[in-house]
Write a structure and sequence with these properties.
- The chain is of the alpha+beta class.
- It folds into 2 domains: 2-39 and 107-169 and 272-317, FAD/NAD(P)-binding domain, CATH 3.50.50; 43-102 and 170-269, Polyamine Oxidase, Chain A, domain 2.
- Helices cover 26% and strands 32% of the residues.
- The protein is built from 8 helices and 17 strands.
- A hairpin with a 3-residue loop joins strand 9 and strand 10.
- The structure holds flavin-adenine dinucleotide.
- The site of flavin-adenine dinucleotide has 36 residues, from helix 1, strand 11, strand 15 and helix 8.
């Protein structure tokens, strides 16, 4: 049994922002994540091809900062970030050499344990007990930062917060990653489309630090198309999406040197909670995530930071 004062479930931006803020005040939170990498939905897929390695930002595409504190936090990431010139009026910030550089940089100095899935949680005397596949963790404070449907499942239907969390719907997003020869047409840097199944298409290789032999593209299907094809295998999804991308770019699908698909089951909040987090009556359990305030990385950062601040304020009052 591991004993902790504060345990955070999820090493996405919400969990990392919460942990960073706590560490600044002298706390030593433990961050657990079931994934193999840090960052959750900010992710970069690396693929080895005979001609070298390529990378795709298959989750969040770029960050925008409207909140002053969030903008300041991003500035602190230094060379891990750069502005992507994709023609947008608002600066689009990306990780360098991949989006995952951003959360990795935010995780500096934190105790993050990967490959640790929390399968159950229960209230015990003095806090919370978590079941993981090979261990148990006991913690005075517990912070859950996973997507709302997964948080509702962890809490269970009996918990007082369950009904508010279970109401938050999140739309899926099927994503295609494709590489084309370097001399293939490149008609645009990024494209948003409301009336095409591929709602977002980006020439990934135009982001700073991604130049290579191939032109890489990331295409995200809209919520409706994603919902319709959600349970298909990644191979079938890629086989459906590649011809659509090829048609938009003006190439033959067979010219792709690489194509694969990723399924994001809980990609985007449909209607957020409207508060930065939820908290149990005894203020030992906090539940947060992007879904509290919106559908963007900034919402995740604000939620995690607000949870940390609430824990800090609470202990100052004691
Ligand atoms: C395809 C796509 C494109 C996007 N594009 C943009 C964009 O361009 N700009 C933007 O600002 N935002 C974008 N977003 C949204 C953005 O990625 C999210 O708002 C943000 O990353 C959410 O962070 P989070 O920490 O709240 O959640 P997550 O990043 O989902 O982190 C939750 C973490 O919890 C872990 N976890 C889940 N269950 C358990 C468990 N039982 N035990 C242990 N760990 C667990 C997961 O592995 C994950 O790492 C996009 C999202 C997707 C999917």
């Amino acid at each position: 049994m591991m004993d902790c004062k504060i345990t955070i479930v999820g090493a996405g931006i919400t969990g990392l922002a919460c942990a960073q803020r706590l560490v600044r005040d002298g706390y030593t939170p433990l961050v657990l994540d079931k994934g193999r990498g840090i960052g959750g939905r900010i992710a970069t897929r690396r693929v080895m091809l005979p001609d070298g390695a390529i990378g795709f930002d298959h989750g969040a595409q770029y960050l925008t900062a409207r909140d002053r504190a969030f903008a300041a936090a991003l500035q602190g990431l230094g060379s891990a970030s750069a502005v992507w010139c994709d023609g947008a009026a608002e600066p689009h910030l990306v990780g360098v050499p991949g989006m995952s550089s951003l959360p990795r940089s935010l995780a500096n100095g934190l105790d993050v344990q990967l490959g640790k899935e929390v399968t159950a949680m229960r209230a015990v005397q003095g806090g919370w007990e978590l079941d993981l596949s090979q261990m148990r963790v006991q913690s005075h404070h517990l912070v859950i930062t996973v997507p709302a449907p997964q948080a509702a499942a962890l809490l269970g239907t009996d918990h007082a917060l369950h009904s508010r969390i279970a109401k938050i719907a999140m739309a899926p997003c099927l994503t295609l990653m494709a590489a084309l020869p370097g001399d293939a047409p490149r008609p645009f840097v990024s494209r948003v489309s409301d009336d095409h199944p591929l709602a977002w298409i980006a020439q990934n290789s135009t982001k700073p630090g991604r130049a290579g032999v191939f032109t890489t593209w990331v295409a995200q299907a809209g919520a409706e198309w994603s919902e319709r094809h959600l349970e298909e295998t990644p191979e079938i999804i890629a086989a459906r999406m590649l011809p659509m991308l090829a048609e938009v770019i003006g190439v033959a699908p067979q010219s792709a040197v690489y194509a694969s698909a990723h399924r994001w089951r809980y990609a985007q909040t449909i209607a957020p909670l409207g508060a930065p987090f939820l908290c149990s009556n005894d203020a030992t359990l906090f539940v947060g995530g992007d879904w509290c305030l919106g559908a963007r990385v900034e919402a995740a950062w604000l939620s995690g930071t607000a949870i940390a601040q609430a824990i800090i304020d609470q202990s100052r009052r004691l």
